[in-house]
Amino acid sequence: MQLKYINTLVYLKKNQLFLILLLFWSFLWASLNSYPVEIYPLTFEEEFNIHKFFKLIFNSRIYIPLIFTSIGLIIILFKIQILKKSYFLIIYILFFFSQLIGLALYDFENFTIERIYLVIQAFNALLILYIANNVLNRDQIKKFFLINIIFLVIIVIFYLPLIYIDYFNHQSFYLYNSQTWSENFIGEPIIRVTGLARILSLISFIILLKLITNISNLTKLFLILLLIFIGISIWGLQSRLAFACYAITLLIYFILFVRKKIFINLVTIFLIIFFSIEGFNYIAKHKVIDTRANSTTDNRLLSTFKSLTNNSDIADRNSNSIAYITSSRNIIWLKIIKDYDYKKIFGYGPQADRYVILSPVEDILDSGYMSNASSSFFYAFICGGYFSFFLLILLNIHALYLMFTYLKNKIYKNNNNLVINSTFLIIIFLMMRSIFENSYSLFSLDYLLFVSSIIIFEKLLKNNKVNSYKTSTLLA
Predict the structure, then answer these.
(1) Angle 161-165-171 (CA atoms, 0-180°, nearest 5)?
(2) Range of the domain at 163
(3) Rounded average pLDDT over 259-277
(4) Can you list the pairs that 417-421 forms with residues at least 24 positions away whose Cβ atoms lie under 8 Å?
(5) Which of 12, 16, 35 is nearest to 76 (CA)?
(6) Structural domain contains residue 284
(7) Per-residue b/e over 328-367, b at no fewer than 16 CB within 10 Å?
(8) pLDDT at site 360
(9) Among 80, 109, 168, 346, who pairs with 385 as Cys (CB 3.0-4.6 Å)?
(10) Is 248 part of a structural domain of the chain?
(11) Average pLDDT score, the chain
């Protein structure tokens, strides 16, 4: 017993930096969807309320990474010797720094924590990965991937039941029509159904990759049933962007990873899709009591296809069928192009879409729902100007170069490389999504996944000693 205790102490001392970095990374994940609200301490003068106490703890979670993690990382940087450069992370730092310059030049009076807290959080993530990339080995850095998956599962377990509870209490056929996005849970907004569809999609790809590894038939059966459950929810959420990204990524999965028992795997995937769709339709048909009172039974995929072909009354009901197809992104992007002051080289600063360009106005199309640039490229441009836009392009070029190296060296042929294969598919999915969402252009779930996946993917590529991979390339 004493020997075990001593070994534990030795392990903790030997891996203290590794464990601290994982803890800091977990703090960043836990701070997602939080806002730097003013915290009022509980006093003995008022009656103790467990809800208020829990809300205080829950809402203060952002201050742990915002303050303590920042200080801790600065101390670590002074204590350790950083030898290796990561141009990818350096360019990302410059990407966010250009946004701070834009805010300082454009509206220094509003250079507040409210505008810059997301940038500070993004810097924390970059510093954690910068240190990890220098001091951790390939097995240790894989643990960041594990932390990512754990938090994705936690988010699903936490929020999916809330959406289903709302679903069973309203006359709507699909989960997409859930109104939980407009509600708060302990003072924080509930995740949108489109964001949840993205998470479920990414989890399903990791399971699909695990499905083709050397596992027992019982484990395969369990994973197939799990995929059907996830598929039921994905179909019910009806996120068109998630469907599009999923379909393309699934095609790449088939081309690269399904090389043995092709027919069996095709049939398996077909059955998973079939039972997912029919499973949700069965639930919906037995849930909706009065279909005459339900005006939201439209299948968004079918409606979008009909709008594209102009053969549906959907096009007639909407003054602009393109707005329906793009979820008004065309209106948002046109407004940005029209209203942006092109003399501002460094843009308007962080969250310029919400606070400047797309701030609420009288026009209903330009208020409420339209406070998001809905594209990483548009967001980068209005927040950091020409510099930020150019740096985002460089970041994407780097990701494409890594994927080219991965494909050129046929690393995908080893199905047991679960982490590197998973990060490859995650990067593809998020890059496609970033065209139509702000995604990894600001601190968010997409950002944590993307930047960590790139670092893990790159480190594992180096450890595989692949050909034509040189650390002295443009963005090594």
Answers:
(1) 140
(2) 2-196+299-463
(3) 92
(4) 417/460, 418/206, 418/209, 418/210, 418/213, 419/142, 419/145, 419/456, 419/460, 420/456, 420/457, 420/460, 420/461, 420/464, 421/209, 421/257
(5) 16
(6) no
(7) bbebbbebbeeebeeebebbbbbbbbebbbbeeeeeeebe
(8) 57
(9) 346
(10) no
(11) 83
In the block, residue with structure tokens 């903790």: 12
Tokens of 363: 């026009």
Does the pTM of the predicted model rise above 0.70? yes
Tell me, yes or no, whether 204 lies in a domain: no
Residue 291 lies in a domain: no
Task: Say how many domains are in the chain.
Answer: 1
pLDDT tens string 384-414: 999 999 999 999 999 999 999 999 999 988 8
Q: Are 405 and 461 in contact (CB under 8 A)?
A: yes
189 DSSP assignment: E
Q: What is the mean pLDDT of residues 97-108?
A: 93
pLDDT for the residue numbered 41: 47
